[in-house]
Every structure is written in structure tokens, then in C-alpha cells.
Amino acid sequence: MSALYGFRITTVAISRRAFLRGLSAAGIAALAGCDLLGQLDPADREGIGFIPPAQTTDRPDPDSTPTVEPNTWHEGAPLPTPRVGVAGAAAHGRIHVMGGWAPDGISDDHEAYDPNTNRWQAVAPLPLPIAEAASVSVDSAIYLVGGVKKGLRPLAEAWRYDPSADTWDQIQPLPTPRGGLSAAVVAGKIYAVGGYSSYWAKELSALEAYDVSNDQWESFTPMPTPRMLSAVGVVRAKILIAGGRSSKTGGTVNDNEIYDPMTDKWRAGSPLPTNRWGAAAAVVEDQLYAFGGGNARQTFPNNEIYDIDSDAWSTGRPMTEGRQGLAAVTLSGRIYAIGGGTERGWSHSSTNEIYQT
To answer: Whose CA is closest to 272, among 294, 257, 285?
Structure first.
């Protein structure tokens, strides 16, 4: 078991009530009015919150979720399989959450959330169980790179998911096998940075970019601070890497390093106010939002916002509880913070909180 997550194992069951809470009030009223809830078998009722398998390319309606005040959170339907160390990305108007550690071990679960209906759907599972991979979207496809498999062995493998066909295809592997890496997209290239070569080895500073057009990787100037489990985002074609864990400091780091792909150079930005690893980041209107994370003692609900023009951080409304190893994905101006672990040990969450910036 990992030294990072500790030895405490906590499972989070998803009850029927939790699934029902994911339905809108209007949806529940409609079911009750037709006496459909009373006619469902108990097993069928457990399925409420899912949509039947179907292909969809619908774009989300910006008005489909409740109108809320800026800098506030509201709940979405919970992730069906509680997990920590997940990857997340958006494509075809849906949020995809992939892999991670479930209560019974590393998972190949792949579930898609539709904000229009506030429902989840199980889609094509990962090619193998993977945790702590990095995921991005390019040209309506989802790319999953690196991570760890059973036995905590870092992976070089990378895959492309086609949401229209609901299929995975393997692409050229990473030059450097690693888990706990971060990934970002600039000008059609996927930049994979940092991570670890094993849980017991020093963290990595490697920066490698995958060209979607020719299925090739190329190496670039390494990140100044080797680290893993960092928050990453792209602002004005610059890649921002904040926080993480590094043997260099003996634990968490708050370094905020900014990479310019045009010059292949790094520079230091104002440090992340709260030292933490396992945070997730998303970008809205050229601002980076860093959510959650933790250290060896606790998890954080923190929401810290970086402005690249002023090189300064501000504080947004925190999540309802601390979570680390979660996914944060932007869609239609809202940020979806999904999954993760609420305790410093090996805990698992199904929470889906939606942030109005």
C-alpha cells in the first residue's frame, strides 16, 4: 500500500437516497405523479440517476443547471463509483471520470456525467485498471496518459477515447513511464510533466509533449522542481503547475512554475498559498482555480485562484469538505469537482460539487 495515501481504508457506500438526490425536484415529482416509483423493483430503483447506454453528441445548455450566485457551490448527482486518484476530462458536452482507486482496488471504471440531465452513464471501461493517470481533451477526443497499474507499477501506455464510438485505441507510449503526472494541452500538443517512477523513488521533472497530428512524443526542458500530484492548467498558452509532493522538500511543495511552449522556458510565479498535493485545477476566463489537496495530516477544501496578470492568488469559496485525488473539469463556465478522498488515508468519495465562478 502506498506511503502517500497511508494505511487507513474507508469505504463510502452509495445509497438509494444518494442516487435519488441526484434527480431534480421536477423529475422526482413527475415519477411520483405517474406512480412509477412505487412500481419499480428495488433493484431498478437503484439505477435511478443513470441513463441507458446511448451515443450522444449534445452540447450542454448553459441554463440546464440551477442559476446560482457567483462564487457558490451546488451539488450534482454523485459519482456512481466512489474513487480517489481519478482522471477527468470533458468531451461532447459530458464530464468523463476515469480510473482511480475504488474500495476494492485500482479501477477501470469510466463514467460520464451529463449536466443537462444530471445523470451518469457507464461507458467503455479503461483498457486496464489505472490510477493517478492524466487526462485531457483534444478535438472532441479524450486522451489518457501514464498512471499506475496493479502493484503500483508506473505506466508508459497512453490511449485515445472516441466518445462517438465509445471505444479506446492505444497511441504511442510515453517516453518516461510514470504515475501521478500532470497534463495540459497547448496548440494541439499534450504536455505531460512531473510524476514519479515508483512510489519509493524520487519524483520526476520530465516534460514530454505528444503531437496529436503525428502520434509522436518529444522531450523538452524539464520542470525546475521535480514533483508529483500537482495541479495544472493552461492560461494564455502558458502551462501553470502548482503544488504537489516532492522528496526535495520532504513533503508538500507550493511552487508555482510557468512554462512557455513557444520559448521552451520555465519561470517562477507567486507560490500557491497552501502547500498541498493531490489538488485539482481548472481554468475559467484566464484564471486558474486550485481545489482540494492534502498533506500527511489532513485534506483541504481550499479554493485558491491565480491571476497571471497580477501574479497573485485570491481566495474563493471552499468546497463543502476537504478532498484530495479528485478531478476538476470546466464545462460551460462551471467547474465540476468530482471524486477524491475526504481523509488523508485511503478513503473514497462520490461527491460531485459544481462551482459557479
So the answer is: 257
Residue with cell 449536466: 115
* Backbone phi and psi for residue 256, each to the nearest 5 degrees, phi listed first: -120, 105
Q: Of 151, 271, 153, 146, which Cα lies nearest the Cα of 210? A: 146
- In this prediction, residue 202 carries a pLDDT of 80
Query: What is the rounded distance in angstroms from the CA atom of residue 187 to the CA atom of residue 314?
Result: 28
For residue range 105-117, list pLDDT tens digits in order: 999 999 999 999 9
Q: Which residues contact 240 (CB under 8 A, 6 or more apart)?
A: 232, 233, 234, 256, 257, 258, 269, 281, 288, 306, 308
> Which amino acid does the sequence have at 313?
W
H-helix or E-strand spanning residue 36 = helix 36-39
**How distant is the alpha carbon of residue 298 from its chain centre?**
20
pTM here is: 0.82
For residue 266 the three cell numbers come to 520555465
The sheet carrying 189-193 orders its strands as 182-186, 189-193, 207-211, 216-220
| DSSP-assigned letter for residue 68 | -
Q: How do residues 257-316 score in pLDDT, each as one tens digit?
A: 999 999 999 999 999 999 999 999 999 999 999 999 999 899 999 999 999 999 999 999
